[in-house]
Write a structure and sequence with these properties.
Number of strands: 20
Helix content: 10-25%
Strand content: 25-35%
InterPro entries: Gmx_para_CXXCG
Pfam family, one: Gmx_para_CXXCG
Low-confidence stretches: none
Order of helices and strands: EEEEEEHEEEHEEEEEEEEEHEE
Shape: globular
Largest sheet: 5 strands, mixed
Distance between the termini: 17 Å
Length: 239
């Protein structure tokens, strides 16, 4: 099996579609100021399926902000059990569907930043019919489309597999907030023995903004017609 990383179209290449969204996540965990390491930081983990409507503090998670670490732990009380297995609340974690507006015409698949994947409704149906594993669609709550325009969905990715350890340089981890400096080689590989055999889309555990897909997904996506994104093959590191 071959694996690929989803990326944005190079700026020197023409775009086929005009679609663009102006959205915010429903909830965003605040960034933190840590008294131990002195860092102010937030991550970019996105979990559109997670619903915290019934948490008493959910109103305090509507707008991105930065808080002292002690306040962060209080704000995230009761949240861990709602997250996918193996994940813990992280500063900057984005929860719930995207909300806002959209304009223009969208291709079958769209990535705006390289760490998100939007799917047009008809394209999602065709991907599901082809038996791809691990597709978790969440409908965007956006305005601006005409009555005949198809809905857009965002795919949530399972966290699984790893980039090769030699391609990920990690500094010491703060015992309080968990921050650590991470540098990833631009020519990274996937650790072959760690890869899931039951997922066609996933995020590596040690690089959770890198969208990885299988050859099966790429072939299915190409049958949908042109999209404004790129698939870059990622080599496998074997031991």
């Amino acid at each position: 099996m071959r694996f690929y990383e989803i990326d944005i179209v190079r700026p020197d290449l023409p775009r086929r579609w005009t679609g663009h969204i102006m959205t915010e996540r429903t909830w965003t965990l605040p960034g933190v100021e840590c008294p131990t390491c002195g860092e102010t930081w937030s991550g970019q983990q996105m979990l559109p399926t997670v619903d915290v409507t019934d948490l008493p503090q959910q109103g305090l998670l509507r707008k991105p902000r930065v808080v002292p670490y002690a306040e962060f732990t209080a704000l995230t009380a009761g949240l861990a059990s709602r997250l996918p297995r193996g994940l813990a609340p992280e500063p900057g974690m984005q929860l719930g569907p995207l909300r806002g507006s959209a304009e223009g015409a969208f291709g079958p698949l769209t990535t705006q930043d390289g760490w998100d994947l939007l799917v047009r409704e008809d394209a999602l149906s065709r991907l599901q019919q082809q038996g791809l594993n691990g597709l978790i669609p969440v409908r965007l709550e956006v305005e601006g489309f005409g009555s005949e325009a198809p809905f857009l969905y965002e795919l949530e990715f399972h966290v699984a597999g790893r980039l090769a350890p030699e391609d990920v340089q990690e500094g010491p981890q703060c015992p309080t907030c968990g921050w650590r400096e991470v540098r990833i080689s631009p020519e990274h590989a996937l650790e072959a023995d760690s890869l899931p055999n039951d997922l066609d889309v996933f995020l590596p555990v040690n690089a959770t903004t890198y969208l990885m897909v299988t050859e099966r997904f790429v072939q299915a996506a190409q049958r949908l017609g042109p999209s404004d994104l790129m698939f870059r093959e990622v080599p496998l590191a074997r031991r």
